Amino acid sequence: MGFVFFLFSSIIELLIVLVPVLIGVAFLTLVERKVLASMQKRVGPNVVGIVGLLQPIADAAKLILKEFVLPASSNKIIFVVAAMASFSLSLSSWSVIPFLGGSVYADIDLALLFLFAISSLNVYGIIMAGWSSNSRYAFLGALRSASQMISYEVSFGLVLLNVVLCVGSLNLYSIVCFQEHVWLIVPLFPVFILFFVSAIAETNRAPFDLPEAEGELVAGYNVEYSSISFALFFIAEYANILLMSTLTVIFFFGGWLAPSSFYLAALDSFLVPWYVSYFFELSFLPNSFWFFVKIAFFAFTFVWVRATFPRYRYDQLMRLGWKVILPWSLAFFLFTSLTLLSFGALPSFF
Q1: Alpha-carbon gap, residue 184 to 187, rounded angstroms
Q2: Which positions of the chain have pLDDT values less than 70?
């Protein structure tokens, strides 16, 4: 009886984490279509529901009700497992993300290492999807996607080591608490730029969406997928966008913490309009408000970048990753290490 109660409570706790993520993914697709339409002087979704608010439900119903097609020459078991693996791995990362003042499903000390492991495993779902489809277009898209993710994952890790050096912990809750007075965006602003560019490339988003270059590869590694299997890849991509936005907030913008007096003084010194300063003085608002606003801002930034920047060529993408971002990431890591070492502030585990 005790085991059944434990299992039931664990499932409830897991649903409390995953259901808001899935709802956020659904409405992120609507926000993206609305923002892109506004930037391109179009109307966007406005038929299903009030101002198109029910469009995500209609899209989900369309994908679920479509016929599920298994290519005749594909490896059917791996073909199905690939979509399920990408979906489950994209959602499993949320188990270590602290919400609303620190509540987390799995509070582990090596949370950052866990995120690195999940990020590395995401490559296997894409490779399996491209190989099992038995299509040249899908296979080429999978190879390009895997090489892109591996290339930027190296820089991604080096960038986050700067945060680990400053905080002295791999626990996400400890990283947020460390920024109570000064957010890490202030001392690590160049590192944040490298992190955000790597995050865009890691999620295969424009201008780095080479695996989905319609003019060259039709639709990339998931070209043979349809119905619910395509929806699983679709959900995984947008869940990763929300995850990267959340990690950006946690690592560099104080997580759920409200702006401190340090930022209020900086706003006054820059003579910003009174209403902007007043907005940041609303520190009495709940932590959930600040967490949601910060995540929404960076999710919007992903959409804004897609609407603004043209797609890179593949050689430009690889050159940027290996010859620009990787050397600068290593240089900033060494600079941060030497600076902390000179002040005697290097964490003990180093």
Answers
A1: 6
A2: 1-6, 100-102, 211-218, 260-284, 348-350
Closest CA to 160 of 191, 182, 186, 183: 191
Beta bridge partners of residue 103, listed in sequence order? 99
Query: Are the C-beta atoms of 109 and 115 separated by less than 8 Å?
Result: no
The answer to whether the Cα torsion of 44, 48, 53, 58 is positive or negative is: negative
| Phi and psi torsions of 277, nearest 5° | -60, -40
DSSP letter at 343 equals: T
Within the chain, residue ranges assigned H as helices are: 2-39, 55-65, 76-92, 111-132, 136-167, 172-178, 189-202, 214-217, 227-252, 261-269, 274-280, 287-308, 314-319, 326-342
Q: What is the DSSP letter of 311?
A: P
Tokens of 344: 């005697």
Q: Which of 4, 74, 18, 68 is nearest to 228 (CA)?
A: 68
134 CA to centre of own chain: 29
The whole model's pTM is what?
0.90
